[in-house]
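Contributing: when you submit paired examples, paste them exactly as shown. First protein:
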Amino acid sequence: MILVTAILVSLLIKTFLVQAFFIPSASMEPTLHGCPRCVSDWVLVNKQTSLLGGVQRGDLVVFDDPGGWLGHGSSTAGRQSPVHDVLAFIGLAPSTSQNDLVKRVIGVGGDSVEAKGGKVYVNGIRLVEPYLLPGDSSSDVDFTVTVPANELWVMGDHRSDSGDSRFHQQEPGKGFVPMKDVIGRAFVIVWPLDRVGSLGRPATFDHPGVAPKR
């Protein structure tokens, strides 16, 4: 009975509050490890973002594939044993779903996001992005978009190895991620032990022109 109760509690927590995810790709390096030469990070995702001010610029979000994004090196999918799959289902192991991706929110509904000359601008303010992989420019692809209401523009921190919003502008969703597809905000790395730490919003987004909307 105690075991059944524990499983039910774990399942409820995973369904409504917090879920663990496994990061096997390099698209979010160096913030989240998933490169072939390292131990991949496990992160916890808060599913109650609406209670914490909603999704804001700078957040790391896990979301369901909006359609056709997978196959570009940005999935949180990974091969695991059937036992792991069962544990992941009840919330006792990180999810390796082949339909989930993780990226950083660059623009929210109403924002103007532009890339030109290797630099990214939000509402006309150039972003200084210390979280990028050293050696990467903010974007090798030029674009100008206005983010629709209730949608997000997302990009990986390893810009040269991330199949993010920039590369899906010709698809029906035009590269935007609907808020309904967002699973939650990654807020802490829990494994490996030498990587444990919180995942806060960077100071990049503290400028009045790009600060979180209240």
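Second protein:
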Amino acid sequence: MRLRVSHDVERYTTWMDDAARRHVPFALARALTWTAKDAQGVVQDDLPKRYTLRNNWVKNGIRIVPAKKDEPQAVVGSLEPFMKRQEEGGTKTAREHSRVAVPVNARRNKRNMIPKGQRPAALKGKPKVFMMKTASGAGIMRRIGKKRYPLQLLYWLKRGVQVKPAFGFQANTSTTVRDRFGPNFVDSLSRAMGHWG
């Protein structure tokens, strides 16, 4: 998933003389890159407000592609394919001949993550663990103790799970572009012309 950050700079350049216009391609590329970095930071800072993050994997996956003089566009996006569904919403469907396992009472570690050894594939064939089908669906169960009952539901198995849009990527990025591109462009052009620094 990517959002291309580009901008019409005509309204920023109509007042310039020819000397200033020669600096525009470089200044534009740098301003777009700065703006993409601003948007990257906003998206990363917003993630903990929307999700419970167990590690920095998703945050570190928010990347940018800098703009170039001959290609005046910057790209902001996520390396994680599943974040597209988090942005747009939709149904997460199971692979062929399988179902989506929704954790219910699966064992978690201290970081509240489910270890590989407690995931559905690893539990298959373990003692006291079995799959039970009911009229409303299927689940992976575990017997508590030596008797047949009580049972504990570890995972509920579904053919599909509805995912609501929660990422806010496009809204955050668009707002940042609107707020930051103008100041970034003026700053970049001023530096390119030697007014600052």
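If you have annotations for the second protein, write them as plain sentences, like these:
DSSP finds seven helices and nine strands in the chain.
The first helix runs from residue 10 to 13.
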